[in-house]
Structures are given as C-alpha cells and as structure tokens.
Amino acid sequence: MNRTADLMDRLGIAVMENVKETGRIFLLFISVLAWMFRPPLKLRNIFKQMEFVGVKSIVVVVLTGTFTGMVMALQGYYGFRLFSAESLVGSTVALGMTRELGPVLTSLIVTARAGSAMAAELGTMRVTEQIDALYVMAANPIKYLIVPRVIAGVVMLPVLTVVSDFVGIVGGYFVGVHVLDINEGAFMKNITSLVVLGDIYNGLIKAACFGLIMSLIGCYKGFNTRGGAEGVGRATTEAVVLASISILISDYFLTAIMF
What we know:
The structure is a single chain. By secondary structure, this protein is mostly helical. The chain has one domain. 86% of the residues lie in helices and 0% in strands. Helix 1 packs across helix 6 and helix 3 packs parallel to helix 6.
C-alpha cells in the first residue's frame, strides 16, 4: 500500500512539474510576442540567426530529404508492384514528402543541429552571468537573445522544408525512373494530378509551427539553465528531447486538423 501511494505521489509530482513547465514556456511565448513588435527591430541579429538556422543547415537537410525520397520510392515500388500500380510511386513520394516527411524530418534534423545550439549558447550565457549583465545594462534579454532566434526558426523551417520536398521528389524520381525503370510520363503525371497546392501549403504551415516549437523550447531550456557546465549539457539534451517529442505530438494534431 505504501509503495503504491509513493508511486502515485511521484507520478503526481512529475505531472505537476510538466504542467508548470508547459505554462512557463507559454508565458515565454507571450513575452516574445510582446517584445517582437517593439522598436528597435534588431535586423542584424535576426539575419545572423536566419543564416545559422537556415543556410548552415542546408547540407544536412538536402542529404536527409534526398535519401528519404529515394527510400520511399524503393519501398513504394515493392508494395505497388504487387498490384501492378508502379506508376503511383511518384505521387506517393510527392505526397509523403510535402505533407509529412518533409516538414517533420527537416524539423527534427534542424532541432538536433540548431535547437541544441540555441540551448547551449543561452545556457552558457546564463551560467557565465552574461544574461544578468544585460539586465544591468537595461537591455531586455528576451528581445535581444530570444526574439531573433524565434523569428529565424519560424521563417527558415518552411524554407528548408521546400528544399527538402524538392530534393526528396528528385531523389524519388531518380530511383523510380532510372533505377526501377518506371515509365517517366506516368510517374510525372500522377505527381501533377494527385498533388495539389494545399498539400504543399499545409506542409509549410506545419514547418512554421515546428520552427516555433523548436526555437521556443531551445531558448527556454537555455535561458533557465542552472548548475554550471553540467547544467548546460543537461539543458541541451532536454531541449532536443522535449522539442522532438513536441514536434511529433503536434504533427498528429495538425494533420488531424488540416487533412
């Protein structure tokens, strides 16, 4: 009986801590919105973060998108071949990339690369008291440090998703037409007839939401780091794990709403 009560107490404490943390992240989001439109607008910081999140992630996004499309073409071919419907491989790759795999995989990859860096940078600034110094200089850390990162995440994730979608479809085309010898005309016709602009737009909206989640959680974990160098490592790990799980969970609800 005591063990059961102790287990329930621990479970309740864990749930309460998670609820509190969710509330703190939401309050940070409100603060970001409040400071985002207050002048002066730090364009230099915003472009610097956009370069870090977007430009420096292109290589890994291209590799991920290309091989994802190629694998989808292989797997789709072996499945559709059972029904003599190999020509549907193209539309399957295109729909899979634009609706789901493009935004989700791109967001997870960028979270691992840029989201972790956000948490590590802000965490290091926190434990070395650089954030406290900003308060002393009457500079708001949320506007100076977090707002540019959030804007960069929301803007650049859809751009990277477009790149991922394109190279994924090209990779699927290469495997489908040149490796598996699917008729090129049928391959392309099914893509143009079954994929509509709404699929692309909804995928980009997903990517923007995932960019917001990634940047908010990364900044939150870094901004609230405690415990020196060990705390920075812990905050970085927690940021990547929590952001990745949140992206996958939100993907389900966004998909249910959009499609």
